[in-house]
Input
Amino acid sequence: MTAIGCACAASFAQHRQGVAGPYQWSEGAEAVPPRDDGRTRHGDLLRELGLDGLIDAHSHWFPESVMRRIWDHFDRHYWPITYRQLPAGRLEWVRRNKIKRFTTLNYAHRPGMAAWLNEWTARFAARTPEAIPCGTFYAEAGVGEEVRRCIEDYRFRGFKLHLRVSDMDPTQSALHPAFEQIEAAGLPVVMHVGSAPEPGRFTSPRYLQALLERFPRLKVVVAHMGAWEWETYLTLAERLDNLYLDTTMVFVGFTACGPHPEALSPRLEGASHKILFGSDFPNIPYPLSHAVNGIGRLPLSRQAKRRILFDNAAALFGLESV
Ligand SMILES: [Zn+2]
Output
């Protein structure tokens, strides 16, 4: 068992002072505990929805050396990470938070990295029953073979691309062998295609639209509800059967993605079969329960909340038994 962080007022203030850049807590967020204190604060919500756990469609599992470098970058440019335990410790926190299954998203920012990450993910998933293994790929020689390996040899359940960090045009022909196989296999790709928290060269919706014109049956989960291009991505999800959204770092008191536009709230119920709960664990400045309870606070039916926290991800990732 790992040590449980202190939730005293002093550490909360310190934690908040660690926030760098333009990111802030919204007003009223004083009630958000800075540390996970080991109590599942979303237990009441799960009971109300008739669930004994939930699925996290957006969580990150990198080799430890990469995770440490990512955290150094977050410390300098973004926000303090609430979960800084060793891998076994992080799994412990996931389990305590009643997360029954979670994706293992990672991504490459240079050639030669994706194959190594995928190999690591396959090993991690083999020893972690809750993992929904997801691969990644990069525009480099052998990308088609690497994606084949992910689908056929490793039996991954999906993929992840981060268009800003990878600085990669998803429509380039070098990636066609990858998307052709993923589309044919019916596997989802979680894609960071919105401009939050920082825009990139390829984070405009027009790149995703062009990709879907070329691969019209490709299943895509738009991370962060498409922040900041909220309305465009919501409209696309309403229109296209194969386009989904995840709630990562949205509907929380921390403004990495900015406040979700209130005007779009009435449309969430109708789109609730296309929305998946995501957390960005472990790279978040608040406990998991804060993000889960954010879904509970939305003006949605019980059925819609249940879909978001469990049913949609179970169906999309093809989880027979959860
Ligand atoms: Zn993420």
In short: The pocket of zinc ion is lined by residues 58, 60, 248, 280 (CB under 6 Å).
